[in-house]
Each structure stands twice: as C-alpha cells, then as structure tokens.
Amino acid sequence: MERQEDQAGDEARLHPHTQGPREADQLHDQAGAGRGRDGDRRQDEGAQDPAVARPGDRGERAPALAGARLALDPLRVDDAAELAPLLADPALHAFTGGEPDTPAQLRARVERELGARSPDGRDVWRNWVLRDGGTPVGTVQATIRPDGIAQVAWVVFTPYQGRGYAREAAVALVDALLAEGAPAVIAHIHPDHAASAAVARAAGLRPTEELHAGERRWRRDRDAKR
Predict the structure, then answer these.
(1) Per residue in 46-64, pLDDT tens?
(2) What CATH number should be reported for the domain whose range is 4-42+52-221?
(3) Which of 43, 87, 159, 216 has its CA 20 to 30 A from that of 131?
C-alpha cells in the first residue's frame, strides 16, 4: 500500500471479475479496477435478468474513447507485444498479488478477451489501451453484466504514474458507459487504497457498504452526477 502506484491512484481493480484469468492480471483483470476472467463467477451479484438491455448489446467491440490527453484505443492482439514488458513490471503486482504473464501468455489472454464475451456468453468484455501521443501508458477495462451494470478497472504503467492519467481515463470510461445505457458502474477498491478511491470519486462513484474479497464496492448510478 505504500507503492507509488497506490499513492497516485493509478491502480484499481475490479475484483475477481469474469474476464481474465486472475485478479492480478493487468489488462481486464485488474482494477486497477479488477480481475478474474478465469471464469470465477461472482456469487454476490444476485439474480440477473438476461432480458435487460445493456451497452454491450449495441455492439460488443469496445468503442474508441478519448480524454483531454488520452486516447482510449480498443485493445488489439498486436498490442500484446508492446504491452508485455510494461505489464511484466513486478511493481504493478505489489498491491494486487500474482505474477506477470509471459509474452506468450499475454498474447493468448488478449486473444481470449477479444472474443468479446465470457466463455458462458453472459458478460461482455471490453478492453482499452491508454495512449498519450501514441505512447501506451496504461489500460482500462469494463465487464458488462447481464443486468447491464458495468464493472470497471484501470492500471497505469509505472513510468507514467503520478500524472493524472488514472483519473482522466476513469472519468472518460465511466461517463461513456453511463451515456451508452449502463444503469450503473461499479468498481472494487481496497479500503486502505485512498488514492484509487479518490480516482473513483472523481469519476462520480461513491462507496457502498458492500465488501467483496476485502474490497469495498464503489458505485455510480446512471442518474447520479459526478
């Protein structure tokens, strides 16, 4: 919790979410908001209505987004080689645990996540690479559940932390998901992770009383203001 990335709010993670293999994975599986696409299904989400319309139903591929400085480019398989050395930084795993993927593992995971949906077809997976002037500085992810609620996560690579990228990316992502029709956006953040909590708050999320795997759920409903 004393790492620079934690102090700058540059990591947040989803919680064992449904996209990636494990929570420490930094693409869709970190939250910087989140993790877990290994198929560990969430048991805390309650009943889900498959008939509910959700953002992913309008087009499952992640749309291009932008902030003041950042381009949020949809993840491509070819990005894996460029991202591998940045995601292999052990410092990114100090808070979330786990080990970095090898380049081959990362490419395989990207190919799997670009399938747009979880293996059971219930969740829509979206991943973006954060770029400033073409330079990759981090990633964000959204997992859109059957009820339309989107879980988000972000991570900023170590050399680019402390520059406000996490806040800019989180604001752009949350606003876009709500504008697209998500009834709410949630993230899971460790109670002691004050800087990431500040990023979530800047994006309009507020802490709830719910805890999952030791992390507090933050939430912003569609009609709530930032």
Answers:
(1) 333 433 444 544 456 678 8
(2) 3.40.630.30
(3) 216
